[in-house]
Amino acid sequence: MSKYVLQGGRKLRGELAVHGAKNAALPLLAATILGAGESVLHGCPHLSDVDAAIRILDYLGCGARREGDTVIVDTLNLTHFDVPEELMREMRSSIVFLGAIVSRLGKTRLSFPGGCEIGTRPIDLHLMALRALGLQIKDEHGYLDCSVDGRLKGAPVTFSFPSVGATENTMLAAVMAEGVTTITNAAREPEIIDLAQFLNKCGARISGAGEGTIVIEGVERLHGAEHTVIPDRIAATTYLCGGAVTQGDILLTNVVPAQLASVLTVFEQAGCDVRVRENAVRLLAPKRLRAVDAIRTMPYPGFPTDAQAPIMAMLTLAEGSSMFVENIFESRYKHVPELIRLGANIKTEGRVAIVEGVPKLTSAKVSATDLRGGAALVVAGLAAEGETQVDGLRHIDRGYDGLEENLIKLGAAIRRK
Ligand code: EPZ
Questions:
Q1: Which CATH number is 40's domain given?
Q2: Which of 133, 188, 207, 328 could cysteine-pair with 305, CB 3.0–4.6 Å?
Q3: How large is the C-alpha radius of gyration of the chain?
Q4: What angle separates helix 308-315 from helix 233-245, to the nearest 10 degrees?
Q5: Does the CB atom of residue 124 touch ligand 1 within 6 A?
Q6: Does the reported pTM lie above 0.85?
Q7: Strand 321-325, strand 352-356: pairing
């Protein structure tokens, strides 16, 4: 099993372009199913989760091929309506294919995506919304058998929680439904806006994406389109954390600063000098970071739960005590025991974590147990004195495109073994 070997203490300096967003690319790939024809997605990151989504498209009969950062998908002739369990299990967010397939074919059969390391990941909001649009869903033996007579019917949908995936699934199911769908308390993440922009290029009629209420006027059919995936705001945050913990000076390009507002505030509170340009962010780190009183993860535009782990790794070295409250997922502190092995001083109680800053971290062998927790261990390893090893890279490879190459470009001593 491959692992990273990091020599800590090297300052990160230099410029890096951030790759396309995993959490935009995945729903966009599912959305290509809707338009019978060819779609072209530029800026598709090289990630194992993206490869898994391409395998699902291949199974469904879509021709999907990659040319560098571009993925070309031909969805003219679909040959399957189901998604086999082994493909569903590869990536739990494959549930987003449900809305896309039933929208195009009127039926599908796929297995429950199941939980993961950060929580049980229920899909009750997805199923509630799709049933509201008229989808018949039989849920037994771990499978969802879904069908609708004729077309789905537009309807009002209200979410008790602004679920990203449930909002995406509802959009994908509603764009070719008969009539109007209104989604109230919709997720407002930038990835939702990106999906709406692609679907509108394909001929959909969506308004309000990025606000709390999205209105979708169903159309008869969609066609393919060309689109560029938005930058990955969580990968950007991770690299900024690397600069912050190594007294570095890094310039990130291909970022949308407005999408990073809630995390840039934290870097400034921690004593970093953050300079924003149109599509770039420069971070100059202080000699010693300052603690941040309270960081509460919230739905967008609040502080993103995916940034919690890397930011926590950064604040293990800050002067003073920082408090985290993880409001989104019920078990998203699995990186804490591993950070403690590196010398961090962290206490957790339920959804609260208290980080007492320490003057230095010391090397150790640590294991990634989930995507962002693994990224946090890399951030800590960049600062820890000595040689740190991080294994469980299959988690990190799901969401970071060329992590070691990019860190080496910025001056880090890291290699994959
Ligand atoms: C998306 O997951 C992201 N994944 C996650 O990123 C991200 O952490 C999350 O949104 C929140 O921003 C992708 O986009 C592929 P949710 P998703 O539905 O859609 C509860 C990463 O590291 N919920 O907004 O699954 C759920 O239990 C990943 O890149 C229900 O109760 O997130 C959780 O507590 C991790 N019922 C909360 O809502 C439902 O039907 C947020 O979930 C659905 C969700």
A1: 3.65.10.10
A2: 328
A3: 21
A4: 10
A5: yes
A6: yes
A7: antiparallel
